[in-house]
Amino acid sequence: MALKYSNKINKIRTFALSLIFIGFAIMYVGLLFKSTMWLMSIFMILGLLSVALSTVIYFWIGMLSTKTIQVVCPNCGKPTKMLGRVDACMHCNEPLTIDKDLEGKEFDERYNSKKYQK
Ligand SMILES: [Zn+2]
């Protein structure tokens, strides 16, 4: 099976991390426009917003982490955190499910939506 899914918490964390880098990159570009005050200010504000957003996302991950289910991955034997009914292992991206009905079925993130829940 092609493992195109990765663990949701890892995915969000990667996104938050890249936002920090993007934020600093934007602020760095702003420094190149030191002579144009308003242009530099715009870049600085955008950069700060990006970093602030990433902080918010990190906080959100913290909230989400309390709702995750800790399971031991049958593939690599390491403990991993699951979000929703289906998720992928944090270490090896093995698709996992906590629902016996979905066992053996093709991994589909749609199973997490309300429509598919009984
Ligand atoms: Zn694993």
Automatic annotation (TrEMBL):
Family annotation (InterPro entries): UPF0295
Membrane topology field: Multi-pass membrane protein
Residue stretches spanning the membrane: 12-31, 37-61
Subcellular location: Cell membrane
Keywords tagged on the record: Cell membrane, Membrane, Transmembrane, Transmembrane helix
Domain of life: Bacteria
Protein family according to the UniProt entry: Belongs to the UPF0295 family.
Protein name: UPF0295 protein ACFFGV_00010
Source organism per UniProt: Pontibacillus salicampi
